[in-house]
Design a protein that fits this description.
This protein has about 70 residues and is mainly alpha-helical. It contains 2 helices and no strands. Helix 1 (about 5-25) runs antiparallel to helix 2. The termini are far apart. The relative contact order is 0.11. The model has no long low-confidence stretch (mean pLDDT about 90).
Length: about 70
């Protein structure tokens, strides 16, 4: 079974990528690969955040109806 990493794990990975890129001690090819991986993670995290926000809105809307 292919288990998707949790939001926090993905966030930590993205933070590690950013830290590596900020150090400027990575070769250009590696920097581009890290940037690409970070961009993919960032997009996935944004999707997950949107889904969380929608879920919270639905929960709150259910409470308003009562």
């Amino acid at each position: 079974m292919d288990k998707k990493p949790k939001f926090e794990e993905q966030m930590k990975k993205l933070q590690q990528i950013v830290e590596k890129l900020e150090k400027n001690d990575v070769e250009l090819d590696d920097s581009i690969a890290l940037y690409e991986e970070g961009l993919k993670l960032s997009r996935e995290l944004k999707k997950q955040l949107s889904a969380f926000e929608e879920k919270i809105a639905k929960i709150n809307k259910g409470e308003e109806d009562e």
